[in-house]
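pls design
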């Protein structure tokens, strides 16, 4: 995304976190160190910095952050009207980037929207003025929210153009069969003029706006091409009279406008289809809800719900807010949100999400999140952000688009001069130059990348795969090794207590009671297994978590700890006669936990956790793609190795702490592997961040999801190869689209310059280039994961 330089004048930057003059001094020194800053005055009372000079706002914000403070920023998504090609998008982007306070901006031609990061308080009026100066317009909220602004007018214009140019098309068809079906000269004039200057007025307006902004666009090429064909025809008509009907080029002007309008209409339809994923997600949320008020069910707008409200959802209804089930049981259809085709049973205390459907039971739900905080809204925001992101290859397209129109105008001028110098008549030279102008349309270039990204990320979202940005798509192609966390990722994450061995002098019941007290209130999977085996227990006093090792506390006056074999070694505690039992349990691949008091082991707890149904399919799918799979787990080596044997994994790294997981990923990377890490817990976050591609289970923690480039909305490991597949297909589609977009111009321009394409054929080819790129993207939108990933 381009960053905006401040104008060489004063700019005011809000700064948060300053409390005194010393704070202001640190911020000022940090700002003065930024290249381009001439002076800076910082006022801690107003929380504002007055900066003079030319420096990128992002650089200023980074300097403030490095000093320990923050420039508040916000994200804006603006709908832009009037863009028609890649050069249009580039011009809008450059205009917005010049507005003081804009940190970064990305303009997407396919969605006709701009995604901006701006300093908080930046006025939208200034952004709208910049868009207007570039020759476009900022759409209001109501207009942008419409399903397709101007769709009825577009269709009406297309139908009128079709009716007016039908006689030309019939005449051209007659020429193929040796028949004279072309209208008379003055009829040609009467039919072509309203099409060229009435229905084609949009090209003249947009072309003039681009000219005022001192930049080129596709509309200028169309206006010049059709205008030249019309003007040449009028000249010939006036010079030679009506008897010269077959030597006129009115049909070129009229039919070219028709083909371009047809192409634009088809583009709009295809764009709506590629953007359907976000609209479908947002449409899942119901507009009303039944809130319980004074014991009665009252229907209210869903937007009026607040956290803590209790709502009723009847069988067959969509759930209007995220929450916890407080009463009732039902199977819930989550397929539209997660891609899971089977209903998920929801009991009291189960979480439910907005937009899912209660199938066969009445639920009373306590609202936990509404509006933009719901899972549905966050998913839609992630998909929108991914679709607005820019692929690295797009930078090349942007550079080409910036000079494309001037280059084409130069080629057209050279074509005209070359034909005249070669002895051709003026008519032939002008028509050949018109063909060059008409066929050279940068629309396909502008649509190639965003259309593929929209289609790929939309298809992935429908399957329960959220791609954060294009960098994740690029990274997925290079992955050679996928490292899985074990518990909760490859396994169910719901272990059960399989065995308990008590040391001499300690009963199993007493040991279980001590362990349960240490685990009371914990959400750790092993803690839930202990509590499920023992029932309720009073929590321990002086409780303390030991990251990566276990917990400790005081129960009935006894200082005890419960943790991994690592904790046993750290405490130098003697296992005594439990050593034999530990060896036998570990040989079965069970996870071990030791109950310790002082330097003595009181009991050994052994847990087992079944693999998820999709785990084997995930490993097989990766192997079929030529990707290695490994386990990277904090569990004991024996348990991890047993899981690896059953699933057929290639590598195992077990007994690793969170920092050790990141180090192991780095070690694989040093061996030449491009590593994807799959995890679901806080302890996986460092490894997810270190990996070339982080893949988080949506059933995991927010920390893990925040560190990942791809999130799987349901905890099915079979989605991992599906995620790599759709990312690779999206990347391949981007390159395929760019190949065709460049190919049309590389082939078409020389043919037109050599006089081998008429303006009409050139216009049809130009429209076909954009439509073919979008049609190609729509083929990707039909992607579905293989059966194992469903």
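designed seq:
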């Amino acid at each position: 995304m381009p960053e905006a330089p401040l104008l060489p004048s004063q700019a005011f930057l809000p700064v948060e976190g300053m409390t005194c003059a010393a704070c202001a001094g640190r911020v000022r020194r940090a700002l003065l160190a930024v290249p381009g800053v001439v002076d800076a005055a910082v006022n801690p009372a107003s929380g504002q910095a007055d900066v003079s000079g030319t420096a990128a706002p992002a650089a200023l914000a980074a300097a403030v952050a490095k000093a320990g403070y923050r420039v508040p920023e916000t994200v804006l998504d603006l709908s832009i009207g009037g863009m028609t090609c890649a050069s249009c998008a580039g011009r809008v982007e450059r205009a917005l980037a010049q507005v003081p306070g804009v940190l970064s901006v990305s303009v997407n031609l396919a969605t006709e929207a701009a995604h901006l990061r701006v300093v908080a308080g930046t006025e939208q009026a200034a952004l709208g003025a910049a868009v207007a100066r570039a020759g476009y317009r900022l759409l209001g909220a109501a207009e942008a929210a419409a399903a397709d602004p101007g769709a009825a007018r577009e269709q009406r214009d297309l139908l009128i153009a079709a009716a007016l140019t039908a006689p030309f098309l019939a005449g051209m068809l007659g020429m193929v069969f040796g028949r004279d079906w072309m209208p008379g000269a003055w009829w040609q004039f009467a039919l072509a003029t309203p099409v060229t200057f009435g229905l084609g007025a949009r090209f003249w307006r947009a072309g003039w706006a681009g000219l005022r902004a001192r930049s080129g666009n596709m509309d200028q090429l169309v206006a010049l091409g059709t205008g030249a064909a019309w003007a040449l025809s009028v000249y010939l008509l006036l010079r030679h009279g009506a008897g010269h009907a077959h030597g006129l080029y009115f049909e070129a002007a009229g039919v070219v406008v028709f083909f371009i309008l047809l192409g634009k209409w088809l583009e709009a339809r295809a764009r709506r289809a590629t953007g359907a994923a976000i609209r479908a997600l947002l449409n899942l949320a119901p507009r009303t809800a039944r809130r319980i008020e004074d014991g009665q069910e009252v229907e209210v707008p869903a937007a009026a719900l607040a956290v803590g409200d209790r709502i009723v959802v009847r069988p067959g209804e969509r759930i209007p807010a995220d929450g916890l089930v407080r009463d009732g049981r039902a199977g819930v259809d989550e397929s539209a949100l997660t891609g899971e085709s089977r209903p998920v049973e929801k009991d009291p205390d189960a979480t439910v999400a907005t937009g899912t459907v209660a199938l066969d039971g009445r639920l009373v739900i306590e609202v936990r999140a509404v509006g933009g905080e719901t899972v549905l809204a966050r998913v839609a925001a992630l998909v929108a952000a991914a679709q607005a992101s820019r692929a690295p290859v797009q930078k090349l397209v942007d550079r080409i688009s910036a000079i494309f129109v001037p280059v084409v105008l130069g080629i057209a001028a050279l074509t005209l001069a070359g034909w005249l110098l070669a002895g051709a008549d003026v008519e032939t030279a002008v028509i050949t130059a018109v063909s060059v102008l008409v066929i050279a349309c940068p629309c396909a270039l502008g649509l190639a990348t965003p259309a593929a990204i929209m289609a790929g990320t939309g298809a992935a979202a429908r399957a329960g795969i959220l791609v954060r940005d294009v960098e994740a798509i690029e990274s997925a192609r290079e992955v050679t090794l996928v490292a899985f966390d074990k518990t909760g990722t490859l396994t169910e994450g719901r272990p059960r207590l399989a065995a308990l061995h008590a040391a001499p002098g300690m009963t199993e019941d007493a040991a279980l009671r001590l362990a349960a007290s240490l685990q009371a209130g914990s959400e750790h999977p092993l803690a839930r297994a202990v509590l499920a085996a023992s029932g309720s227990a009073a929590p321990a006093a002086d409780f303390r978590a030991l990251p990566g090792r276990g917990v400790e506390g005081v129960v009935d006056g006894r200082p005890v700890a419960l943790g991994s074999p690592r904790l046993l070694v750290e405490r130098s505690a003697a296992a005594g006669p439990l050593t034999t039992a530990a060896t036998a349990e570990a040989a079965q691949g069970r996870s071990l936990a030791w109950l310790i008091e002082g330097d003595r082991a009181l009991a050994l707890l052994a847990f087992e956790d079944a693999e998820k149904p999709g785990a084997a399919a995930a490993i097989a799918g990766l192997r079929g793609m030529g990707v290695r799979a490994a386990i990277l787990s904090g569990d004991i080596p024996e348990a991890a190795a047993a899981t690896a044997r059953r699933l057929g994994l290639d590598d195992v790294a077990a007994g690793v702490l969170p920092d050790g997981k990141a180090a192991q990923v780095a070690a694989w990377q040093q061996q030449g592997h491009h590593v994807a890490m799959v995890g679901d817990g806080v302890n996986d976050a460092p490894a997810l961040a270190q990996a070339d591609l982080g893949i988080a289970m949506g059933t995991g923690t927010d920390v893990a999801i925040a560190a990942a480039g791809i999130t799987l909305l349901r905890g099915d490991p079979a989605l991992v190869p599906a995620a790599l597949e759709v990312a690779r297909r999206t990347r391949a589609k981007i390159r395929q689209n760019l190949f065709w977009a460049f190919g049309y111009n590389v082939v078409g321009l020389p043919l037109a310059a050599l006089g081998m394409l008429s303006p009409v054929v050139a216009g049809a080819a130009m429209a076909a280039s954009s439509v073919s790129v979008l049609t190609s993207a729509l083929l990707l939108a039909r992607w579905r994961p293989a059966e194992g990933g469903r």
